[in-house]
Amino acid sequence: AGPNTVAGPGADPSCFTPVSDNTTYFQWPGREGPYKIALVNGFIANDWRVQMIAVAKAYAAQPDVAADIEEFKVVSVGEDIAAQIAAANNFIDQGFDAIIINANNTAAFGSVVRKANEANVVVLSFDNVIDDPNQIAINVDQKGLGKSAGEFLLEQSGDGPAKFLHVRGPAGQPVDIARNEGFLEVIKESGRDVEVVDVVGNWAPGDGQKVTADAIAAGGVFDGIYVQGGSQGVATAMLDAGVFKAPISGETENAFRQLCNKAGLSCQSGGTGPAQSSVTIKTAIAALKGEVVPSEIALPTSISYAPFKEGVEMFPKLPGSFFAGNNFEACNIGFTAEEIASQTGENN
Amino acid sequence: MSERKSPYLLSMSGITKSYGGVRALEDVSFETHRGSIHALLGENGAGKSTLIKVLSGVVQPDSGKIEIEGNIVNFANPQEANDLGVSCIFQELSLLPDLTVADNIGITRPPRNKFGLIDYRAQRQIAEEALARVGGENIDPMETVSNLSLSRRQMVEIAKALARNPKILIMDEATSALTAADVEKVYAMLHRLRDEGMSIIYISHRMPEIAELADTCTVYRNGRKVETFKNGTKSDSAVVEMMIGREYSSVYPAKSTRPDVSEPILKVENFSWNDELNDINLEMRPGEIVGLGGLDGQGQKQLQLGLFGTLIGSTGGVEVNGAPVKLNSPKMAKSDDIGIALVPEDRKYEGLMLSMTVRENLSFAAVEKMSRLGVVDTAAEEMAIDEMVELLKIKADGIDGPVGALSGGNQQKVVIGKWLMTKPRIILLNDPTRGIDVGTKQEIYHLLQKLAAEGCAILLYSTDYDELIGCCDRVLVMYDGRIVRTLAGDDLNETNLVSAALNLPEQAVIQPELKKKQGMSL
Amino acid sequence: MSVSVVIARQFDRATVIAFACVIVLLLIGAMVEPAFLSPKYLIQQLHTASFLGVVASGVMLVILLGHIDLSIPWTICVGGMMATGATGFLGPEWGITLAVPFGVLCGALIGLVNGLGVAYLRAPAMIFTLGMNAVAQGLMVYHTGGFAPQDRATEFMRELAVGHLIPGIPNPLLIWIILGAAIIFMLNRSVLGRRIYAVGNQERSVFLSGVDTRKVILACFVFSGACAAMTGVLLAGWANRSYQAMGDPYLLPTIAAIVLGGTNVLGGRGKYVGTIAGVILITILQSMLSVVQPQRYFAQLGVDIPADTFRQVVFGVVIIGMLLIYGRQQLVR
Amino acid sequence: MNVGAEPADLVSRQKHFAWVRRLSAAQRGILIAMLIFTAMFIVYGWKQAAGLTPNMINTAANKGALLALVAMAQTLPVITRGLDLSVGATFVLSNCLASTIVVGGPVATTFGIFGVLLVGLACGAINGVIIVYGRLQPLIATLATSAVYFGVALAIRPQPGGSVNFELADFMTRSSFAIPHSVLLLLAVVVFIWIPYRRSVLGRATFAIGSSEQAAYMSGIPINRAKLLAYALSGLLSAIGGILLTALTYSGAAKMSIANEYTLNSIGAVVIGGTSLFGGVGSAVGSIFGAFVMRTVGDLLIVFDINPVLQPLFVGVVLLVAVSLGSLRVLRIKNRLDIYR
Ligand SMILES: Nc1ncnc2c1ncn2[C@@H]1O[C@H](COP(=O)(O)OP(=O)(O)OP(=O)(O)O)[C@@H](O)[C@H]1O
Ligand SMILES: Nc1ncnc2c1ncn2[C@@H]1O[C@H](COP(=O)(O)OP(=O)(O)OP(=O)(O)O)[C@@H](O)[C@H]1O
Ligand SMILES: [Mg+2]
Ligand SMILES: [Mg+2]
């Protein structure tokens, strides 16, 4: 069993955008709804994931979506890869129609995908996408994010030699590696003499703040900072040190945007918000209905620049942990920030 | 005892060993023959244990030479000593509490099956035989050692040492916790082994044991050898004087002869607990020293623990100073209006914090009395401690060193001192002179009398009948959790103690060997 | 005992060598990056060391008892998130005034449960506190996911974490100094201090000395929870917000720092001054390793190995090396 | 009359419950862990909509076996009254290495497996040498080596990937006649490693050391060799776990979080399995059940419909309850002194 590889174009191409022109298309035999869909998350104890799950639950509860869904189940299994594989297998055995995975280990799901295809279960992955061609990967262009960060910093730092600080994610994470690749690539292409200092901030505000503070205290003066996550901590460290005010390219945390506005920093803030989980659900339903969908879907990245527009790009009343970038207009998914925040509150 | 022509089986010479600043042994020599029992005597801290630790490879001497059968040997660890036929029962038991008796006995060289793995069945048989040899048939080889009482453990320890078929068997106070009955069996065994040609080195503070067992005696004092002599050639008091280096009179101070007019300070009625204590009734008056006798493990320890508030679900009444009390913790038992102290059985694990200083240990139970708002008044503490060190004549390099480095006797004094600092009115002592030299024993007996004279009531459990007879005003003999007889005055003698301990009818005949021991106490 | 004797007694051999190691480490580091010896860097290190120092203060007491507190990662998080989210529980006014005590109190409550489990249920601390860590994590995920709480630090928290009440000394360092002095006094001069060491030495003896050891254990766990939460409060003030998993990077360094400082993990032995040395050692080591750029040297050699490989390996090797110098245990005898 | 005999009725009273007392502390631990696991698994099976199919049992077994192997690895040092905080890192290192060298034909694969096992053994032996000859506290020594091992793992596999001999992987994670091969692997480890070890002189010596290191030394037990062996075997068992992980994921990944998760969970599993953290008492068999208990908690999430944000709390509470079950013995204690062992 498994999907038929068919010719494009697919359904709703503005929402289900193929990653490239070479992207293949899948079609499963259509089946009667409503469907049973499971989201197999890894760890949850992180603000992005909490928000991601809240949005997924909210999306699945919207009346027109809920009509297609018999059961929407979410489990967060923790950091362990074996537990995540087991949970996915379990849902396949329980007869779920589709499983959505945010993978703990992107390379580890070969057997799950094979088993799912044998059982005619649609597999989709997002955020940390599975690197297996026989499932639908809902991609954020991580490398592209690294590139645009590089472009921003190069542009902001004038001409001539420059020194950038790159506050990276956890060692060994494909997302970190892809962003770093993109970042270094544009720097190299620019032909400028740029020194990049790498520190590991683990995408957490505290870690990022600590390593940045250390780097600055140890005499580091930087012409630009790229921080992959925990952006506001890094900006805070720079401001606290008070040695220089460099342009910063960071993630989409609300707290970061607030700080950039307040301190008048030159900031780029880019990423794809946690609401991408709802795009994945939408894709799953389309695939289950038998529509033609790309095997790799590119999510739009939302990139904004300081000063951020209050109420549109930056939300003074919302928690700092709130991640912006949740508008997927083409998919007709547009949670306003307030909606998401209140969803998280209501949807226990 | 026949003098053999053969060269010494073992000869040690020029042995010196220091622990930090402490000279434990200084140029000590020692020789022993095949087929002899050689007793080592000396005060606490004289260096006896250190000498045998050197001999058995536990510690390395700073200098000196050891020869066995004429060959110079050098033991890097106990294993090597074992391999050359030196087997030692250490003062601190070296049993493994979580393993079974059989595992312990077979620990170093167990029988193996054809895969080279331990053959449990054969090991069990060996253990049974070894136990039978020492007279411990009633010990289950499959029992976990931690479930055994101290006296049973000593029996296992002896069996373990014997199972290795040593040429030289060293027993460092290996019989200190044994009951009279067990001691008899062990004596018989040692005599047999000696006649078979084994050389036995025997350390004990019980003079009668030495008198009965040893062929040769060597006395040590302050890390030096004093003299070696044939057993029986010196009077007991001469030996003791050699040990303590001063003149010596009777061990037991005169008992006080107060008429018991006062009201009882402690009154226990129908005290029962968990099948192990049954209907205990007892009264103690200020100034009285009451003994607890009987075979080991008949509820004496439990009775003391019960009075100290550690038993849950005990029934019956306890009155202190005429007021009924419900004792439910040691904290309550030691409180000012009750004032009970317990010197527990096992000083290392129940009485002391070994790596803390002597000072901290001494003041530990009473420290709240020497503090304000939870802050210790160090001046007051120091004064009280100095007083106690003085009173108990604690010999320590410095009282700011760890208590674990003290000799056994001094450790025991610290435990007693710790409780005296709380100024108790009722003192429960569980075998307080086990492993303590005659000199120190005497000091402790004097102390007990002094405390009694000051109005304390003392409940003394001892496995040593002489001690009970010498110290106590009356002795309650326990059997199977009951008090089966109370002995006082002329009735308080060894014959009666033994027959009561076995719960024999009052006029029963006692085996002749046991009678032999009478009169040998100092 | 005079004050100087008391102070001198805090510096045993291990502690002195540990401090010497700090200096050697800095000197070696300075060969690569001279700025490691600048006052600015050193103050910055002491500033961040204070966060570790505060949490290590509590855990050290627990370790002295012969127990361990593995719940600190999420207790830190509880401290931070409850302090920033206090408005949600106490209302906008009280929530801001009482943010710090509220956060610390919540941490102390977690410590209380730990203490009850370990002291009264006699559950092994290593696993009971591990379970409590999971529970605290669960509570915080529920809190974030269920209530969309406020996560911004109050002005006061911010001031507490980055301000300078005494010029030149960051407030967290001041807090650590005060806390440390109090602990040194407590351990050396108070009844509780004696009892803490004693329980770690031989709890049975302590019980039979008429001390309710359970209360001692309970007190230490509550204190440990409160210290961890205080670190959470400081971290939240420092980053200006609280966030999930903010305590995760602190568990292993805390234990490593305490043990590097000469405290015996089995309890009963250890000096607080040693812990100070350990905390500074770990902080500086981590910081120096994070700042140097080993991948450049490797790249010059033509090998492409991740910078983190170098950092991890050196971190482990340096800790073992230092302990081999001064942290070896006595032979059993 | 035998003078030394205990009073007759006393002996008979003790004999009465002989079989209960005969169960050693370790055996009682295994029994309790087995009971908890069975109870949980019954609930799991009963709440399964589709019933307990062989597939689901296989899934649960694969997941549990991984932790079981790491927990067995943790058991040995714990029995010596030590601790090994590097089991997780060794597990991850073996995973990364296996995803590189357990590939190709049968011969290459066999060599690969031996290579991984050897590296695991070496990691454990290094721990052992540092602890025994360096005389460092096991906790800090293994904390430090775990950083080193993780660093090496990261060098081998800077990002997730690699591959593994497909037939082998498939074989290791399948089941035959409804019996998961991973369970057979555990059984094999028990029969060919644990039981011989337990019954060997050095194996028993580890129990002796944990029981009382001083007494063990005085008894003439080769302390150093026994400890070395315990840590080395621990590394070997972690490496077996790493190979199974590779088979399950067809890849390797160097993630610190995985290493930490397995290390911490292994301690939980060991304790639930009845091994005393104070040494001297324990069994790797108990740890297997302890691991399955820990794992089944996660399975329960799937069958119960629990609000996602409450799931971690659920796991935490169940874990805490399972841990506290062992503590119920304090309720039976009749002598307060027995609490303080
Ligand atoms: N490990 C140690 N560290 C420091 N000093 C020690 C140590 N062991 C023994 N000593 C000291 O060495 C001396 C001799 O002690 P040893 O144990 O040999 O005496 P002993 O004759 O066996 O006494 P006892 O009759 O009390 O057992 C004592 O002063 C003791 O304090
Ligand atoms: N003199 C001593 N005093 C106290 N403890 C000692 C002494 N010598 C050794 N030990 C303890 O015993 C351990 C060594 O015992 P032993 O030499 O029997 O081990 P082993 O396994 O035979 O060693 P190896 O394999 O290296 O020969 C030491 O690590 C130490 O803990
Ligand atoms: Mg001695
Ligand atoms: Mg003695």
UniProtKB/TrEMBL annotation, chain C:
The chain crosses the membrane at residues 16-37, 49-74, 94-113, 125-145, 165-187, 216-238, 250-267, 272-289, 309-327. It is found in: Cell membrane. InterPro entries: ABC_transp_permease. It is a multi-pass membrane protein. GO terms for cellular component: plasma membrane. It comes from the Bacteria. Pfam families: BPD_transp_2 (PF02653). Its main location: membrane. GO terms for molecular function: transmembrane transporter activity. Keywords: Cell inner membrane, Cell membrane, Membrane, Transmembrane, Transmembrane helix, Transport. CDD domains: TM_PBP1_transp_AraH_like. This is ABC transporter permease. It comes from Thalassospira profundimaris.
